[in-house]
């Protein structure tokens, strides 16, 4: 029995020894990897050369191992970049100032033992540079809304551009822009520019350099663009430059009249009908109280289905309004005036600007619209069901302050909207200036005076210094000189409240 135990133990030891011996020794290192490319050389010349954007294909072989990746070089083996891909597109660089070049792409395989092919495969690509191109993008009418490509503007100019290069977008190096004269030194814009905004530093001068903002940023680039002429037509020229320093042809904008800022006061005429009548009403009455120096902006002027004086976007119009200290805004489309003013007066108010706005608010304006958020109006008053608010001829609108004039209507206002004021904050106050004159009209019943909340003119002011910065009227004041005392109202509003 003991002999059996000794035999079993001996066999067990021999088995362990045999197993151990099977795992001893050094792992076999695979042979050096080999790299292959689909093509060694491409024979092309002249116009048949390839563009600088090329495609390459490769693979590797490892005997006794496997390929874990590749290294690629496109600068004559000066630098290498790792990849696990076996094909890719490359934008090859032609030396600056040259039109053609023969550029090799090198590939070397790396195996699982980190061995690198010592004889990389390569393909020689005969390439030629393709000329880049650039164009301006202008707005077009959409769903009945006119385009916004102004032809008569204050010195703020906004342009959208599109640059392209057959060799790929990464081949774009920069843009050159020039005001009026392509012989002067260009202003250089980076390759990623898709839009730029030019704002005159001296809007009241005969000529000015301009701050420039790109891609919607509110941070100006470091240097100024020179050459803008005021009270004159201007043309902006642009061309694109690629990384081989090939330049496109010049592209020019249509000529645009750039006018000086002539005063600190801007009249914004946002009427769509009776434009001349209403503007004359304001200019004549402002003249009567000694305010005769002001500029005008025709916000709704449309020629050939295009707004002629409105800036292409809110950022540009914001810069225009910031040129002025006072704005007198009158309009007959509340949706347009409130929405546009909300988005374009931020810089104006931040600079201490003061605004008067008289906008007729008709019955189809949403009383809860957020277009009112920037005004002293908290909400519009809704008429009772099946009723409308209006103003009859000879209606009296009364002041909150005793020594202000009572004004009287000279025409029927078919749709009128009283409003509620915002609540005061720790720094901003809101006060009603005029109320009443509103009647409630219901079909089949005689009209009756409206007894509810009926503020129609109000102001916003700074509580610390009592300075008013916004006066708003929901009534068209040009229809309220029945007492021949509108000049007295203008003195109260423009001279005393807004300190014109």
Describe what this molecule looks like in 3D.
The chain is mainly beta. The chain folds into three domains: 34-128, Immunoglobulin-like, CATH 2.60.40.10; 133-258, Immunoglobulins (Immunoglobulin-like, Sandwich); 265-497, Rossmann fold. The chain has a nine-stranded mixed beta sheet, sandwiched between helices.
Q: Taking strands numbered 1, 2, ... along the chain, how are they ordered across the largest sheet? A: 22-21-24-25-35-34-31-28-29
Per DSSP E runs of 2 or more residues, the count of β-strands stands at 35
**Any idea of the CATH topology of the largest domain?**
Rossmann fold
CATH class of the largest domain: Alpha Beta
How much strand content do the residues show? Answer: 35-45%
User: Which secondary-structure class do the elements indicate?
Assistant: mainly beta
Q: What is the approximate shape?
A: elongated
Second rung of CATH, namely the architecture of the largest domain: 3-Layer(aba) Sandwich
Helix content: 10-25%
Span of the ends, CA to CA: 125 Å
Estimated radius of gyration: 38 Å
Tally of helical runs: 6
- Taken together, the total number of domains comes to 3
In the predicted model, the low-confidence regions spanning at least 5 consecutive residues are 1-23
Average pLDDT, all residues: 92
Report on the biggest sheet: 9 strands, mixed
